[in-house]
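Why does residue order matter? Because the sequence determines the fold. Keep that principle in mind as you read this record.
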Amino acid sequence: MSRNVLWTIGCSKLTGITGLAVAVMVAVLFLFVDRHVSMWARHLGNGVVFDIAQTTSLVGNHTLYNVLLTLGFIIGGILALNRGLTPGVRVLLYVCVAVTTVMLVGETLKWFFGRFRPILYIEHGLYGFSWFAFEGDMHSFPSGHTFRVFSAMTALGVVVPRWRVPLLTLAVLVGISRVVVTRHYPSDVLAGAFVGIFGALWIWRIMMGTTSYQVDRC
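Structure:
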């Protein structure tokens, strides 16, 4: 059996096991934790912690990612036409494709689940899922800021390993910030992190195989 096949089998098992563990944790958080944490976050008010969290959340802003991805694809396309698919160009396109794919999957999941955001529970007592919802206040699960930032930081961490810890730390802080500003429940953030991390890793496997294309070698 080839190395690639073994790698794929191993990654599939890891994805499946982690996905099952995340599903169990999401269920536990949904039943016993989410509402209490959101009420606690609400009671923090609009103080310094809230302001810091709101600023941190900007790292996962949807518009910011749309602009960066558009620029990334344009620059990557121009470089590919002029230089060919050099390792650096492949890395740039990989990051853009990984984040874009995760965003498409994540937004579809938001529409499918249609989970009420914390504000609807806090103000109207609405909790749970409405399914196939188009309204923004029913797009809590999974957290968009979280899957965007985790996909980007994971992709960058793959190609620049020495930055991996600070990049993923930033992603964690963004996820926490979404709970503090009462836009998401902890289970939304956990699910968003799973989608972002494994989405980026699988796109790496599909686009780059097991070959190492690190930025500092390009």
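DSSP finds eight helices and no strands in the chain.
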